[in-house]
Amino acid sequence: MQSQDVAAQSPAPSSPAGPVVDVEQAEAALVEHYPRLVRLAYLVLPSRLGRTRRVLTAHALVQRALPRGRAAAPLIPAQSAGRDGDPGYALVRLQVVRTALEAGLPLRRRGLPKRAQLPPLLPHVWGLKVFPRPGGADELALDQKLSALSGPARAAHALRGLERLPDGDVRGVLTAAGVTDVDAALREADGIPDPYRLLESPEFDPCSLQARPTDLLRRRRHLKAGLVGAAALAVCGALLSLPGDGWGADGPAAPPYAQNPAARAALDPAKLTRTPASAWKTSARTDFSVWPARGALTGDRALLRRALAVWARPGEGVKATATPGTPSGGPAGPPQLLYAGTVDGARVVILYDGWRLARYAEPEHGTRGAALDLARVDGAGRAGASAVVLSRSDGNVRFLVAPWVREAGERDLREPGSGAMGLALDGGVTAPFVSVVGREPCTAWNALELTDGTGTRVLTDLGELVPARLTAGRPGEAGDLSGAKELRAWAPYACSLAVMRSAGVRSVNAWTFAEQPLPDADGEAEWLCTRGETWRGTGARVLAQFHTPGARYGAVAATAQDVPACGERRPEVLAGVLWKSAEGAWYLLAAGSDGVTGVEATGGIEGRAKGRLLSVRAEKGARADLEGTLEDGGPVGGLR
After folding, report:
1. Angle (CA) 390 392 397, round 5°
2. Residue 441: closest CA among 481, 508, 494
3. How far is 93 from 605, CA to CA, in rounded Å?
4. Percent of residues in the chain assigned helix, strand, coil, to nearest 5
5. Where are the beta strands (DSSP E) in 492-573?
6. Which residue has the higher pLDDT, 333 or 231?
């Protein structure tokens, strides 16, 4: 459960100089308060660095914040100094803020860059990408707002909310850190209302991280190359000397490592499977297996050979990605060709081996900078095989759509009444439209609308090779967004789709499972659960969201992963939220889906209700455990 609260701040005077601090005292403060200092640095650093580099840079700045000897700490009153008035902490905090602001400055053509502006040498994580755990829609919205602020304004906001410093002390810290226009920074930070409770969220915690691999195959190849030694170097040298942009016949692929006849057949462009253009009209299947080969370069055997070779063994210069649960090895036999052509200044090939899609792309002139994307699509039906991402360029995205698609359009899910804008189709390729991937802030959510002989479907780009299908309705009875009611149901929650990016999501369903009258006659709130199913079957993500009358966005009340709740196997769901009425009173509100006959709250809040709705007076910041009872007497736990 999440509460909606704002901590009020009051100004206090500050002075620029303070006691002398030994390096041992500063080190003790740094070690004791290390997680808070790293979180502070992470909040001040600009989001353009990327989440992984922000994490490593935040740790590096804090670890380098120790003075070289005795130093004077800024004098801040004990009640607002942060950590019990410790001058050692104040000194280290000042150094962290100063270097984080320096790290956000642009590099100049003349003069040497500051150390904080360069990528950190230490700490360093080999073979992993690390980033904080994602939060909900509120945290996403706050991060978007912070990214639009200047560095001093972000620092002012973090010092106010995270450190609980009054404005007088914030002025002192920013001035000591080298900020020239402190008043402008404070005014700019005032533009973010009611945000301080979210600064303690895992979204902004660089000490609680998720890790993903980056280059497992590359490291394995390096080890083998080291064992082979001089003989392998001689072979590589001979291959690099071949003509054709210095890459040889296989382009940016790594040297061959297998002479197995089946493996060699899978890399022969002459043996690629090509489906007749009209096969989908008579086939009992409607999936990627009946897509015809399209594009102007389907006869370019050299391009097709490079695509097959890179799929089997991507070289060091190839940027390779795969959705979670997708093996990255080459095809077991000759795959099917779906597309080969030139799109947005790149030569693109799309292949299908029966359960994976592979997209190979290289510059129109040369092969340096080639990319390979893999996505698992086993079990795709007519809806799941409707479109594939063909190109991403300058913030736009193009799709290759199924041969049975008659019309394509672009629809903003945030504006359900605005209608869909038509997208031209040329040989199955859509005109470009603005992608939502990386778009900040979330003022719109553009989705792809496709119409065929069986109806209309809405798909959303989540940063992967295959867009996810959007549906609405009770699990087991959900349908496509073909009507005004379904589109309106998605409007307040479209931006929450951002938390499902890069997770191998196959489809996302939205279900309004309850409506609840609000205390103090504040209207009626809506409870909705969204469930993202993945291609691999595991890792489903469930969000319970709470929407009050007049609010533009729904608030994420609870999240869960790998649970059956809100799904076809077990549609029952129960969630709660701590809510503040217009009169200033706090309540625990909880709601269950149909079939929930009773709700009980225990722990920090005690309450019980017959039926599926619970409303109990509560204290600000209180927490409770929820337990529901089903019609058959079985239990249902609250999502957390």
Report:
1. 75
2. 494
3. 37
4. 30, 30, 45
5. 505-517, 524-534, 541-547, 555-561
6. 333
